[in-house]
Amino acid sequence: MKIFCECGHIIHDNTDCISYKASFIADQDSSDLRYKIEEQIKKLVTNIEDAASNKIDVDVLIEDTMTDISDTITDYSPRTIYQCSECGRLFVDDNQFYTHVFISQDNSVPKNLMRSIKGDEWKFNPH
Ligand SMILES: [Zn+2]
Hints:
Structural class: alpha+beta
Order of helices and strands: EEEHHEEE
Strand order of the largest sheet: 3-4-5-6
Distance between the termini: 26 Å
Bound molecules: zinc ion
């Protein structure tokens, strides 16, 4: 995917871990998301407790739960924000995935607002 910014810069989205892209969760949804993850963890604990008597592989249970949690996070954060690294414009999805454009107030606005909270310390971690 490409976004053609008004300033002439082209914003590419064709890989993972993009420093100028963020997914976001509405504050109204964040506690629901935490609750759903908590439920999935509680279910995992119960399943692990039952695993020995049912001869179930715990690693499979953990892997399945991690997949479920990842899917839940994706369900709650499907919308994205991109920031043009040249002019700082923001491209923000609404609930219908229509992109709205916001222009920086002035040149002092950082143009890397979407990068990792770890800043320069961030490193790709494939796990
Ligand atoms: Zn731009």
